[in-house]
Amino acid sequence: MSESLLELRSITKTYPGVTALSDVSLSVARGEVVGLIGENGAGKSTLMKVLGGVVAPSSGRIVIDDVEHARLTVPDAMRAGIAFVHQELNLFENLDVAANVYIGREPLTGGPLRLVDTARMRALVAPLLARLGVDYRADTPVAALSIAQRQRVEIAKALSLDARVIIMDEPTSSLTITETNRLLEVIADLRAHGVAIIYISHRLDEIKICADRVVCLRDGRMVGALAREEIDHARMIRMMIGRDLKSLYLPPQRPAEPGGCDVEALRTIAFPDRQVALSVRRGEILGLAGLVGSGRSTLARTLFGIDPPLGGSITLGGEPIEVRSPRDAIARGIYLIPEDRKRSGLVLEMSITFNVTLPDLWRYARLGLVDAGAEQKTAEIQSRRLAVKTPNVQTPAISLSGGNQQKVVLAKWLAMRPRLIILDEPTRGIDVGAKGEIYALMRELADQGVAILMISSDMEEVIGVSDRIAVMHEGAISGFLERADFSEHNVLQLAIGQKLHAAAEA
Amino acid sequence: AQQKKTLAFVTNAAADFWTIARRGTEKAAKELPDFEVKFLVPSESTPADQKRILDDLLAGGLAGVAISPVNPANSTEILNKVASQAVLFTTDSDAPQSNRVMYVGTDNVAAGVQAGELIKKALPNGGKIMLFVGTMDNANARERVEGIKKAIAGSKVEVIDVRTDNIDFVRAKSNVEDTLTKYPDIAGLVGLYSYNTPQIYEAVKAAGKAGKVKIIGFDEDQATLRGISDGTIEGTVVQQPFEFGYQSIRLMAKYIAGDKSFIPANKLMIVPTKIIDKSNVAEFQTMMKEMLRK
Amino acid sequence: MGKKELGLVLLILVIGAVTATINPRFISAVNLVNMANLIGLYGLFSIGEGLVIITGGIELSIGSMFALLGVVFLDLLVERGIPWPVALGAILLGGVALGAIHGFLITRMKLQPFVVTLCGLLIYRGAARYYTNDATMGFGYGNEGSGTLAWLTAGRSFGVPHTFIALLIVAAIMAVVLHKSVYGRYLYAVGKNEEAARFSGINADRVIAAAYMISGLLAGLSAVFIVFYTNSVSPSSHGNFYELYAIAAAVLGGCSLRGGEGSILGIVHGTILLQVQQNLVNLLGIPSSLNFAVMGTVILAGVLADRELQKRRMAAVANMGAKAARPAAAVAA
Amino acid sequence: MGKKELGLVLLILVIGAVTATINPRFISAVNLVNMANLIGLYGLFSIGEGLVIITGGIELSIGSMFALLGVVFLDLLVERGIPWPVALGAILLGGVALGAIHGFLITRMKLQPFVVTLCGLLIYRGAARYYTNDATMGFGYGNEGSGTLAWLTAGRSFGVPHTFIALLIVAAIMAVVLHKSVYGRYLYAVGKNEEAARFSGINADRVIAAAYMISGLLAGLSAVFIVFYTNSVSPSSHGNFYELYAIAAAVLGGCSLRGGEGSILGIVHGTILLQVQQNLVNLLGIPSSLNFAVMGTVILAGVLADRELQKRRMAAVANMGAKAARPAAAVAA
Ligand SMILES: Nc1ncnc2c1ncn2[C@@H]1O[C@H](COP(=O)(O)OP(=O)(O)OP(=O)(O)O)[C@@H](O)[C@H]1O
Ligand SMILES: Nc1ncnc2c1ncn2[C@@H]1O[C@H](COP(=O)(O)OP(=O)(O)OP(=O)(O)O)[C@@H](O)[C@H]1O
Ligand SMILES: [Mg+2]
Ligand SMILES: [Mg+2]
Predict the structure, then answer these.
(1) Cα angle D307, D311, D315; round to 5
(2) CA torsion, ordered C274, C276, C277, C281, to nearest 10 deg
(3) Where are the domains of chain A?
(4) Alpha-carbon distance D216 to D324, whole Å?
């Protein structure tokens, strides 16, 4: 292995009341892919933010090219050739793709006038987009892109830097398998050109494919490392959570029954002239797969009353219903765990308690006044049940790690009486341990007779957890799969709009 | 209707005072069927707003205008521009440097002197007085203060200060309250703008000092007149805005018709100010009601 | 009482003590009563403004509402001789209606609060001026019919001005609504993150519109109180800039214009601070021309001090956290 | 020219045509020159306000700056007889300095722009009033020394008022800065997502502070133009509410108060629309008491119309998107 490119020495970072990192050291060599794993809140993003110059460490040293720094700024990091694909998207909706890729480093023209050379910028960005295989152009406004599409703008940005080190903090969390594979190819290519990559993901398959070395954080400390040949699922999971994990799939306790939610000829605003027909039975987990932008989230939002339906009917428990607002949906027991938890799932500045009781506050109220004791009790019960990692339930949601925030979103609804729960990417950015707990919860709910619709772009999850899979393609259901027919190949086939039997014949 | 010549009357602000003047212009308009008479109130009491109104009037075709310039000393340029294209009168406040044909209005210094005399009469043994006004940057406020100071010079009456309120009535009243608190020995309070006197009246009554503190005012707010009737207010100096409106329009028409004989040598037509006190307040009230009726 | 309010109270006490030392009349009964009266007057509508600010909005039309509602009230009461309870009811309803229009334009037509209420500021003032033909309206000679109302609004009981009592009552009610009720919780949630509130099934539109309506109601109530304080309304200047006083009081009291933060107690204290400042300008003989400058400086100093306090507090918390992380370390430090 | 600006131009043309039909003098040369003059006057500082709004901030102190800078300017020029280039330079520098203070308080002390500039509104006006002892200042008889400057600011060339020419020049420069330069790019970036801008290595503080400084510079320039328009400054009323006109022009011109949106062309058109409206109130003989109400209604109608247009456009884009996704579908539909 060549000499080290950069090194983090004994990094410690404390936040008020939290030690996010304690005495972590890490070195990265040229052309090496380091997989960084760990549970939610283990400190992965924080460590990378220290390296990217976004966060100043409380103590420790950062060594780049044999120069020691107490802290870096963003421009420092850029100059040192460190590119950062943030876990949370950092794009400007009012600018186009090229402007976003080159923000802060625009090619200039006009001499002292410092004008932006838009034409050259677009010409520079076009090949990067081609390399990532995206379906938009350099001059597309970012406002028009979906989350998954935006995620690849971030990656293009990192590629454009000609960096020596690229940090990728969960770059694939909203990508489906095709896009993910594309990205893994790009990573292999970068590595061949001597670029080092630090790759954070909760999808261990990806780590296994691309990483030369895996390091693992737990509770802000470095707990171990694996060399290329040692990397396998079981080892990684054991390092992360300190124990083994059982299989993802938990069989249902009793067979699914009709009387869940039936959707007929539903038309949504994303695809106004396509119709969706699907039924989720009571007691089953129906996985909903599809390519990015296939309209799954819009379907979920329509069922929950956020987006208006353009036609069609929804039946719940055999009774036709109309959902005009989330209130209607909630009153009937239809709950949505949204895709973007920070924007739609939580009031980040509010405490866990307030978030948990928000959808059902009247239940804790007498004469319109909230009974603080009652709501706190519920919040405590729920947060214990879901093992939310927090000192107490008065903690504001913003100071929790991504995974724990997701658990709080779940807790909001589990404290009530669901009939249909729609989970949109329920484990996006969530560690395996927590994933297992969430799957168990979903199964528990299903066994209580709740119908569960799980939208997921994670193939492992769709195949591993669902009782049945529906696949969406361009705003309509292109087919259903029973457990016996579950395979990556079949899901993909439907997702790109081909018929299964035709594929079988070929 | 396009054939009629336009005469305009431009005020310096929105105030009741001008409502009475408007009656005067209306009376003149009735007597002058060949003219269209416009009455314009700036949205804001600023030279900029007045200038805009004048420009728009000129653009719209104008035979004559009577204006109360917000800022006479520095409006010469625009006034002269108007004077070069139409008949220009000033009213209420004069702009002597400009090419105006004449001024119809009050002599504010003289009005101040009248108020000063009232003060001296009310406070034969002297004492401290406080003045209240909306803003001090209008010429009329400054001239009134000047007149008062002129009249009381040599007597034992002493002006402590002038309190401004930016035409905020709440502030106008709390200024009086605070003055009564700060100077328990205050002898007289003078309201320079029409609304100041009623606010003084209310605050003094609320403080239980009615009669003990002498109040002198300007203009003819109804509450002021009431205060004079019940003896709380010594007296007020009133102008005759009706005459401003009536005479300006009437004389402009005359001037346009070619008659210039009415212009006095000093180009000033001073509409005298009157002192209203307990002796003549009832009569004046009846007259005001009459005038504002329609 | 939160730390923020405590800081404000301290500031008010210090300023008060200094003023009283220079001019002891500051704490004379009559001055305190005068101040209480003005605090009541300004506090009422500042609370409404505060609610709107907590939703993340802003209400710029309060001053113009005072002009419009004021002249309509006087017209009803004096010119048309309508009994005062009816006239009062009409004005309160009028305030609610204006608030409802704002709420509608903001939540349904998705216009920005600043724009909507800026238009309100212009339109209501224009309407008031047109309505009266720019003439000042007053009680004239006909104040007698509303004697009860005049006593209710401008009178005193046990020496305490009724405006102040009204403020105490309204503040108490609104404190319960804001800090204890479901509606108050929704208000904070919507102010902090409207989308998440919607996804929790809260009818954010209704919550926001209600805040503007409550603000309108309190503006209507204040309009009546102010009319009886000034006894007349000059439509072109009545209430000019009062929305700025309300915003200043709310911001001094800890409301963030980003929404989701603030308390009733804070707003009331913000109002008190501003009124004490106005009073001391006169009592210390500072020229009135400097009043605005002093007021601006007090607001700026207040928010700067608040920021410093907040920083210290956060640092203290961080310190505690660090200590907690090393339980072996000396606790006495 | 974007669709937004096109809509505004259409609106202006329609209003103009209607007014001209009722009163043909609307399009007389003298009226057009008057309007051009005022458009120049208001446009200059509206552009500065627009920049600040694009950063997601707001500048409420423009009107008070006019008062303070105006009296200082007159003092330097008339009372102290300083040569006009020096006085002009001092005022422009003064504007920049005030902007820099705002920028400092907002970016370094992390105060909210609304609060900072509200304090500015109060303090600068107070300072102007104290400075002059509430007296109006003017050129009196001493205007001669500044003849060149008077011609530069209030004169005409080829019949076109210099204010308008100044606006054209400033607008052209600012359009390049905003729409072509790196700084403009950063302004939009910071306005939309400040945190992401920081993550991208942009010095957001400096970008924001610069916007306030440019706004201050343009306010200083306008202050001089306005002084020569009115020939005098009454510190208590000079420039009152001008910030609201500027905000209204910027919002009408498509700036969003949430930041990150707006264009120079739009702001200029917003100014034109407002000035046309003011002009037609006078020309059509609408009572001036209604002026504010008409202005409020025009702004409201403008933003409502803009919203409708935007909705249509979004629907059209969605349609296009849907079509693009299914190239086989009939394109003629
Ligand atoms: N700004 C902050 N203030 C306080 N605590 C913070 C802050 N940012 C992070 N933390 C805490 O630091 C710890 C590490 O968080 P970090 O985001 O690095 O975790 P992570 O490993 O990236 O988790 P995930 O997989 O969920 O993204 C968590 O306990 C988190 O609550
Ligand atoms: N309100 C809308 N109007 C028009 N088009 C929309 C609307 N909302 C979403 N779309 C478009 O519809 C398509 C489907 O989006 P949706 O978010 O439902 O897909 P998805 O399968 O959940 O994808 P992702 O994995 O990106 O979340 C996208 O191309 C999106 O841009
Ligand atoms: Mg993370
Ligand atoms: Mg989705």
Answers:
(1) 170
(2) 140
(3) 4-241, 248-333+417-506, 347-416
(4) 47
Q: Residue B203's closest CA among B171, B157, B161, B168?
A: B171
Q: Which residue has its alpha carbon closest to ligand 1 atom 17?
A: A45
ipTM of the complex: 0.83
Q: Which residue CA neighbors atom 4 of ligand 2 most closely?
A: A270
User: What dihedral do alpha carbons C158, C160, C165, C166 form, nearest 10°?
Assistant: 110
Distance from CA of D228 to the nearest CA of B (A): 10
* Per-residue H/E/C for B156-223: CEEEEEEEECCCCHHHHHHHHHHHHHHCCCCCEEEECCCCHHHHHHHHHHHCCCECCEEEEEECCCHH
Contact residues of ligand 2, CB 6 A cut-off: A 146-148, 174, 269-270, 290, 292-298, 339, 457; D 318
In this complex, the chains that touch A, judged by 3 or more CB pairs closer than 8 A, are C, D
The answer to whether the Cα torsion of B224, B226, B230, B236 is positive or negative is positive
- What are the backbone dihedrals phi and psi of residue A104, each rounded to the nearest 5 degrees, phi first? 85, -10
Residue A38 CB–ligand 1 contact under 6 Å: yes
| Domain boundaries, given as residue ranges, for chain D | 3-288
pTM for the predicted model, two decimal places: 0.86
Q: Which ligand is nearest to the CA of A41?
A: 1
Chain A contact set for D200 (CB, 8 A): 74, 90, 103-104
B contact set with D (CB within 8 A): 14, 38, 40-48, 51-53, 55-61, 70-71, 73-78, 97, 135-139, 142, 164, 166
Identity of residue D24: P
Asked whether A11 lines ligand 1 (CB < 6 A), one says: no
> Within chain C, how many helices (H) and strands (E) appear?
13, 4
Greatest Cα pair distance in chain D: 79
Give the fold, CATH level 3, of C3-288: ABC transporter involved in vitamin B12 uptake, BtuC (1.10.3470)
**C-alpha–C-alpha distance, residues B71 and B50, integer Å:** 10
Residue A250's pLDDT is 77
> Residue B176 burial (CB < 10 Å; 0-12/13-18/19+)?
buried
Cβ proximity of C163 and C153 under 8 Å: yes
From the candidate CATH numbers 3.40.50.2000, 3.90.1150.10, 3.40.50.300, 3.40.50.11500, the one assigned to the domain spanning A248-333+417-506:
3.40.50.300
- Convert the pLDDT of each residue in C260-273 to its tens digit: 999 999 999 999 99
Task: Determine whether the shortest distance from the Cβ of A43 to ligand 1 is under 6 A.
Answer: yes
pLDDT in tens, B202-236: 899 888 899 899 999 998 888 899 899 999 999 99
Separation of first and last alpha carbons in chain B? 25
Sequence-ordered list of residues with C-beta below 8 angstroms from that of A58, at least 6 positions apart, any chain: A12, A13, A14
pLDDT in tens, C72-131: 999 998 888 889 999 999 999 999 999 999 999 999 999 999 999 999 999 999 999 999
Q: Could you tell me which residues are beta bridge partners of residue A9?
A: A61
* Cα–Cα distance measured from residue A99 to residue D180, given in angstroms and rounded to the nearest whole number: 12
* Chain B interface mutation, best of D31, D79, D134, D224, highest count of B Cβ atoms under 10 Å: D134
Atom 10 of ligand 2, residue of closest alpha carbon: A270
Sheet holding B87-91, edge to edge: B35-40, B5-10, B64-67, B87-91, B102-105, B268-270
C300 in contact with chain D, both atoms CB, cutoff 8 A: yes
Is the pLDDT assigned to residue A451 strictly greater than 60?
yes
- Tokens 């419009």 correspond to C68
- CATH entry 2.60.40.2890 includes domain A4-241: no
Question: What CA–CA distance (Å, rounded) separates A385 from A411?
Answer: 9
Q: Nearest Cβ partner of C321 from A16, A325, A354?
A: A16
